[in-house]
Amino acid sequence: MVLKNSSDSVCYRNNRARWTVGGLTFLENNYASIPVAEIAVRLGRTLGAVRLKWIDLSLI
Description:
The model has no long low-confidence stretch (mean pLDDT 85). A hairpin with a 5-residue loop joins strand 1 (2-4) and strand 2. By secondary structure, the protein is mainly alpha-helical. It has helices at 21-30, 36-43, 47-56; strands at 2-4, 10-12. The protein has a two-stranded antiparallel sheet with strand order 1-2. It is 47% helix and 10% strand.
């Protein structure tokens, strides 16, 4: 989940939250077809977190 404050900056809800099975499945099924920025927004994670998980899962 992405939260926006009054200055229109984006705040991400997850802070070192564990990856859920649903989040991992979404990443594995969509990493080739959806831009990383959109995946990050949909999962409520930072770009860095998504990229690190890609590496961890050997998807790149």
